[in-house]
Amino acid sequence: METCSNCGVEISGKYCPECGQGKVKRLEVKTILHDVTHGILHWENSILKTFKSLLLKPGLTAKDYIEGRRKHFVKPFSYFIFMQTLFVVVFHRMSEKYFAFLNYTIKSDSDKVQERVIEIQHVVSQYVNYLNYFMPVFFAFFLYLFFRKKKGINYAEALAASFYWVATTLVFSIVLMLLSMIDIRFWNARFFVNMTYYVIAVKTFSDLSWGRGILKGFSVAMLSYIAFVLFVSILALCYLQFVMGINVLQIFGYYSQ
Fold first, then answer.
1. C-alpha to C-alpha distance for 158 and 145, rounded to whole angstroms
2. I want to staple 87 with a disulfide (CB 3.0 to 4.6 A). Which of 170, 184, 205, 254 is the partner?
3. pTM of the model as a whole
């Protein structure tokens, strides 16, 4: 009788009854090629299915995952990491152009204030791949706060939904960044697009009426944005003050050096 090459237990069927490993053959080039193509196609197919489901049915998709119907979905954090990676690549290519446009439209009588604003933008651009991870954390907190009683969700379940929804809005941001190559003002539409998606996601997740669902969805999204922006601003100012040694009071024009 054949034995398992992984743990040495006798195998009578297709898989080892002890460790679950299937019967294996000696590695060949065609085996490696099959594993590579299967892995890539399976991952891409799963990503596309998850994105399509979140795009068309954001609330129901999150609800299905939380309730245990997870077979056809990429895990929330893996989905977020994939979309976040794409976002960071595109953002680093496009952020210089956008910030240049933004600085041109900002009017300030002080060159020093303008310099400090540019420095803050540089910090945000440099660490955006880390900062984006905080948005789902804040969103999950307010989602849990608003629906812990009605939906009976805990914070971990709210976090799973938030990773899904925030990651999907990163795709919207990528599209708008690419469109900004035609007109930079497309990038400014991201807040409205993302906010609309969040409201629909929360409403369809909560099963509330459209009136109450839109109100609560808007509240969750807006509070999350405010908390995230304040958090990022504080981190950026602390970085300038304590790491770069820049007096951040100058940014607000309290006094000049």
1. 9
2. 170
3. 0.77
